[in-house]
Fold each of these.
Amino acid sequence: MTIVVGHLATPEGQEALRTAVTEARERGIPLVVVTNGKRPLDECRAETDEFVTRLADEVDVRVEYGTGDLAEDLIRTATSTGAALIVIGLRKRSPVGKLILGAGAQRILVEAPCPVLAVKV
């Protein structure tokens, strides 16, 4: 059983990561961080090695390198690890934008094999 979160260098991605760390620590279960797969692997490894080292004192954490389809990667990882929770970040939207949830977030909410916690900045 794990907590799964995507790693994005955006304010909503960072808030999702903070929330996922808190959830994993409080539940006493491992955290799996999935990269977005859109950047070169060497660049991702350097960045993820830094935050894995930083988080190691707080929670058992490992990194899965994504394929570029973050929604698919999160769903696949949640399924394969028997995730208890997926954490995603959402940004604030205009009144019209609130009617339309991002396609990736909507897909995760609909297809996730476990509960999804959406946090906003």
Note: The radius of gyration is 14 Å.
Amino acid sequence: MAANDDACHDDLFGVPVVAAWGMGVDSTAMIIEWVARGLPLSVVLTADTGVEREETYAYLPIFQRWMDRHHIEHHVVRYIPKRFKHWPPYFSLLENCLTNATLPSISYGGHSCSAKWKIQPQDQWVAGWSPAQQIWARGGKVVKLIGYDSSPADSRRYAHREGHVSDLYDYRYPLREWQWDRDACAARIRAEGLPVPHKSACWLCLAQKTSELMTLPPWCLRLIVLVEARAAPRLQTVEGLWRKSTRERPGSMTRFIRERSLLPSAEIDAIIAGAPIDLIDFQRVAAEIPLAERPTMRDWIDRFNAGVERLAA
């Protein structure tokens, strides 16, 4: 892992280089090794969907301090909706789903939630960044580093993006260039003297494993039940956040939560019976309030959380 051993990267010097840090194992190791090799890095961007696991948010300041010690500019960016029509304003993927009575697009077989909540806010930040504007004005491109490793799972993700051409970005996949898998990434992070982060994934995501769901705190489980209950009247081709049942798990996370007694059945029933109706009433009242004074979806979620905590006590 010697520094300055990547002569083939000479073309990167003098070009804006942006690293996408997803707060997980792969992208963390990518940034550590990239810096150790003495390669240029202009800025690190982290897109916050608002529904990362508690462990992931706890890791955020740990690596931010590492970046500060290495004098790396870094920013957390978020998708900010601008038009709310008659809706209460929302600022996270969870709030978006509850507002529109839907599930994340991955539950329907799409990927627009990642594009909307991760890629778009990063691209918007770069669009207002002077080094990017200057290189684009000269007909050049910004280099964007993406942390896909060489494991089979990331190979499938890489294959999905392979061949993607942008007028604004050159996409680089350093871990694949180095032929690093997830184990190599974890070892590199430990060698740096840092704890290995938890897998970075939204707790509303179809990709969440049953073992991961079982470690979620009760407040996350309740909101999962709420999201599926809110979307239920509009679901025709999918069962829930996990989409379709398999031999290992049902398509509905609520069903899994009930079957494993992760929440009391009475509490699940109360959420399903009452919360969606209360939310619809809240949205109807909010629609009559001027936008500048309108309560946000976060206000209703805080009220929901407080209410179910009192019932559970």
Note: The chain has two domains: 7-191, 210-312.
Amino acid sequence: MVEYPAYRDSGLPWAAKVPEGWQVLRNGRLFGHRVETGYPDLPILEVSLRTGVRVRDMENLKRKQVMNRKENYKRAVKGDIAYNMMRMWQGALGPAPVDGLVSPAYVVVKPFSETNSAYFSYLFRTTAYMREVNKFSRGIVADRNRLYWESFKQMPSLVPPRAEQDQIVSYLRAQDAHIARFIKAKRDLIDLLIEQKLRIIDHAVTRGLDSSVSLKPSGTQWLGEVPEHWEVVHIGSAVQVVNGYPFDSGLFDAAVGHPLVRIRDLYRTRTEVQFNGPEVLEAVINTGDLVVGMDGDFNAARWLGGRALLNQRICCLRPHKKITTEYLALVVTKALKFINELTPSTTVKHLSSGVVKRLRFPIPSKTEQLQIVAHVETETAPVNDAISRTKDEIKLIGEYRDRLIADAVTGQVDLRGWQPGPDDAVSDDMLAALGDDDSNEFDEEEGNGED
């Protein structure tokens, strides 16, 4: 790839030079505002923070959403850009693939004839442009800032000639196809490694480490037989279950208040938001507590982020003296795997704390628990390392993609002579792999526009 033969000053701090022949125009010169409601029969659209807008799969939602008053949803015509007013700074935008409906919390803009909305979707999701979105957004607190149409239309954008917009989009889609194939292969490898890890855990928590001991029926389907000297009890008799609390989202804050653990924070060590209200003591958790995500694919993880509040759709399992948290984490991992496999994928998955309390699970002696945990840690260490390395590779290719896009949409490389090769075939299904890395990366807005 080579640079353009000549550049000029753009007058913009986030893109200092642009190719000769490119313009800098305000978005109001490129898009009109579409505000159309009353189309309840159109499909619901959702936005991926990395890949844009697509039709929502209503049969396989990770959590049930209220779709009341669909007549208030906004219509987006194929090719329109829809963006979330509060989350455009994170990349929550994209061109509509078909005519569909978006939440009232979205703005829908229709491209004029010389505007390729796919090019501008790439541009708007660059890091530099998303910083500009923050500058033009308005709100009472930073975490609740909104980019209204009146501000969006004042924002300046880089505008190549229409033919170059089309060429840039073709090039980036071809590169995305190659990147998506790489990412899919890496995710398939991670799935295999996780299965290997789960097999190690399964055997340890159902059979123990001594293969010579006699076994007995556990009385529960997901366990099968267990060592004869093990006790089998209900979780509710050995663990304190702390339910999440329905905190008011209007009091969420980016920096002020109590750390609030939401389902998207399950594998993190810090929270995205704080609760700027009184601390609810019955929802307090601490470092080392085992938290369980109860919607979508059920998962459990140790919370390592210090004192925090637990939001709804998560519960905390805090063991009594006869069981260690480390051993409990292994048993719950095994139990949730069974429940996930048992729950049909076409059903909205939800796990109640009552179901968790009724789960029967085995308790060996404290000495055996410690031995089992140590064994699992030793046996799974190489697998965990391989998973971590593979995730790092996916992250690096994502950073490479971001750089590739930024260079293309800001004119740092001249793509006018690029021609697709035989391996540059692209399909929307293929590109879907770009957006599946994080199960929580979909921007899900309720019908009333609340996050």
Note: The first helix runs from residue 117 to 124.
